[in-house]
Specification:
The chain is of the alpha/beta class and 362 residues long. The protein folds into two domains: 2-112 and 283-327, Periplasmic binding protein-like II (D-Maltodextrin-Binding Protein, domain 2), CATH 3.40.190; 115-280 and 334-361, Periplasmic binding protein-like II (D-Maltodextrin-Binding Protein, domain 2, 3-Layer(aba) Sandwich), CATH 3.40.190.10. The chain is 47% helix and 17% strand. The chain is built from 15 helices and nine strands. Strands 1, 2, 3, 4, 5, 6, 7, 8 and 9 form a nine-stranded mixed sheet that branches. Strand 5 and strand 6 (141-145) form a beta hairpin. The longest helix is centred in the N-terminal third of the chain and has 33 residues, at 2-34. The radius of gyration is 25 Å and the shape is globular. Residues 1-6 and 25-33 have low confidence and may be disordered.
């Protein structure tokens, strides 16, 4: 009885299996047929995240494939071929608003974010502390008094002039290394922070004030010497060359966190300083086409992509995985960044940048 029924049952099973395979093949063929390639323009700081294999898998399941092109963030708005792209992936809502205005796009999506921070070295903490520049928050994180530091830098103070400085008694000026204010969004954000401090801890809101304040801050950029066009360069110098080249560097928090999370043995001498106040930058996607909108929606609303983003140091709506991963590396960051300021209006920020550029060109 069993032998007689086994043959037909086996045949039926094979038939079902073949049918399922054909159905799956048809579905995969349809998926490939409906997959679209999305042309995305971004800065070098975002290239690794957007090229991540796990991100590609999530996007592929949504029928999307990225064709990526990069440019220095400050140059993106000058591109004459912007409308040839489907989406622009940017650091900051102000930059996104500028691109949207140029391209007449009303579709801006945000989800991921990161604060502006200063990367430094633990050996410098006693030196900075003796000058009243740093303090501990909750006994775990370092806060940087931005107004005091800007005042020291504007006066041309040198490291060797700081009290109790046996760790770094060099003659170079106390400066924060940064990306070029004329070419990068991070450089412009640093200028906005410095202008806030120089304006009596108030957002600059008038063109006349912007011109005066920018004149007084130009030295913070000109005395740095050569500057990279994006924040990736200064951070790479910091990580590779150490304190001698870069004692203080203005970066996005996510750059430091990505470095820590991606290295088995990150340099234990590295430390983050959280400027008080600072700026929170929302990672923004400007959709320039229907396909760009599909990409933007996927990137900003899919929890699987949030998990990928946290590996690159981004903060997300739920940072549980990020905080846990950092804890395994012995790194603690503020769960909430409280002392945050707004940027000047776009026209005022542009005036600040233009005025510094004029001073640098003299």
């Amino acid at each position: 009885m069993f032998r007689k029924s086994f043959g037909p049952a086996l045949a039926l099973g094979l038939l079902i299996g073949v049918g399922m395979a054909i159905t799956r093949s048809i579905q995969e063929t349809r998926h490939v047929a409906t997959r679209v390639t999305v042309r995305v323009l971004t800065g070098p700081e975002n290239e690794a995240f957007l090229a991540d294999p796990e991100l590609s898998k999530v996007l592929d399941s949504a029928g999307l494939r990225i064709s990526l092109e990069k440019a220095d963030s400050g140059d993106i708005s000058q591109r004459p071929d912007l409308k040839n792209f489907d989406a622009v992936f940017l650091d900051g809502e102000d930059a996104a608003a500028k691109i949207a205005q140029i391209t007449h796009s009303k579709a801006i999506f945000t989800s991921l974010y990161t604060p502006l921070v200063v990367a430094s070295w633990k050996s410098l903490i006693p030196v900075l502390d003796a000058s009243g520049l740093v303090s501990r928050t909750d006994g775990l994180c370092y806060t940087l008094d931005l107004a005091k530091l800007v005042d020291l830098m504007r006066k041309g103070t040198r490291w060797k002039d700081l009290p109790q400085n046996s760790a770094y008694p060099v003659s170079k000026s106390v400066l924060i290394s940064s990306a070029d204010v004329r070419k990068s969004d991070s450089g412009a954000m640093y200028l906005a922070l410095a202008a806030y401090a120089a304006n009596g801890n108030n957002v600059v809101d008038k063109a006349a004030s912007a011109d005066r304040i920018a004149d007084s801050l130009a030295g913070l950029f000109s005395r740095q010497g050569f500057q990279e066009g994006n924040s990736a360069g200064p951070f790479e110098d910091y990580a590779a060359m150490g304190i001698g080249k870069t004692p203080l560097v203005m970066i996005y928090e996510r750059q430091f966190l990505k470095y820590v999370l991606s290295h088995a043995n990150p340099d234990p001498g590295m430390v983050l300083l959280y400027p008080s106040p600072t700026i929170l930058l929302k990672q923004s996607v400007v959709a320039l086409s229907a396909n760009g909108a599909r990409f933007a929606q996927a990137v900003t609303s899919n929890p699987k992509i949030d998990s990928v983003a946290e590996r690159y140091g981004f903060r997300t709506p739920d940072n549980t995985e990020l905080f846990a991963a950092l804890a395994t590396k012995g790194v603690t960051i503020p769960h909430t960044v409280v002392d945050v300021i707004d940027l000047p209006r776009p026209a005022i920020l542009e005036e600040l940048v233009n005025q510094v550029e004029t001073e640098l060109s003299k």
